[in-house]
Predict the structure.
Amino acid sequence: MWEYSDKVREHFFNPRNSGPLEGANGIGDVGSIQCGDALRLMLKVDPESERIEAAHFQTFGCGSAIASSSALTEIVKGMSLDEALKVSNQDIADYLDGLPPEKMHCSVMGREALHAAIANFRGEVWSDDHEEGALICKCFAVDATLIEEVVRANNLHTVQEVTFYTKAGGGCAACHEGIEEILAKVSAERAGLGEVSPPPACPAAPELPKAQPVKLTSVQRIKKIEAVLESVRPMLQRDHGDIELVEVQGRQIYVHLQGACAGCMMEAATLGGIQQKLVEALGELVQVLPVSQMKTA
C-alpha cells in the first residue's frame, strides 16, 4: 500500500474549493471517466489584470487526484495567469509534501487542467486530442507529445517512471516499445547538449516470462467486489453511512450509498476511492456508479 503524507490525507478528507464555481470564466476539462480519472478546473479571472480570484475543482478519481486538485486550487489563487502557467506538476506534489511515485500522474493531470482552463479564458484552443502527437498508449489515451513533455520536465529515464507520471504503459504493455523510443530520443538530445545522464544501472537479471493474468469467473469477480466493499464498510459506518452492491454490468459496478453517505458532498470522492480499490483488486478498469445512474432494459 502507498504511503501518503499528512498533507495529502488532509486535502483528501477536507478538500479545498471543491464543487462548482459561480462566475467561472476559465474552465479546463482533462482525462475521462473511462480511463479512470477526470478533472474539471474552474477559474474566476479578473479580465483586466488577468489575476485568478478564485479556483474550484470537480474530480472523478482516487484520493491522490482529489488531494492534487485541492492543492492546485490553493496554489494558483491570487496568481496572474502568466505566473500560473509556470506551475509544474512537481510544484503540486511538493505542496503536498510529496506523492507516491505511482500517483504522480495525478499532479500531471492538474497541470494539464490548469493550462486548459487558462486557454479557455483567453479564447485559445487547447486540445489533448492527439493532433500534435501519435497516440502511444491506447489503454489510457496518452499521446507522444504529453509523454515527451513529462519526460523532459521531470527528467524521467525509465518506462516505469513514465507510467507513474502519465499512466501510459500501465495497461496491456503494448506501448512500452513506443515509450522506450521517446525516452531514447530525449536521452540522445540530452547527450547532445552535454547534460549529465544517470549512472548506468547494474546489469539486470534475465527477465522471466510474464505470468498471464488469470481471468476471473463471474462468481469470483463478484466475490472480490464484495470483499472490497466489506473492507471500506467500517469506515463508512463510522460516519453513519453504508454501501450496498446492487448490480454489476460489465465494467460498470452500481452501488447504493446509504445513511449519511447518501447525498453527502463527498459522495463522488467516496465512490472514486472505492473505484481505485476495485481497479487494484480486479486488475482491470471499472467504473463505480450510484444506482441512480443504472440503465434498465
Q: What stands out?
A: Residues 27 and 117 are 4 Å apart (CA to CA). The first helix runs from residue 6 to 13. The two ends are 39 Å apart (CA to CA). Residues 135-192 form a domain with the Arc Repressor Mutant, subunit A fold (CATH 1.10.10.1100).
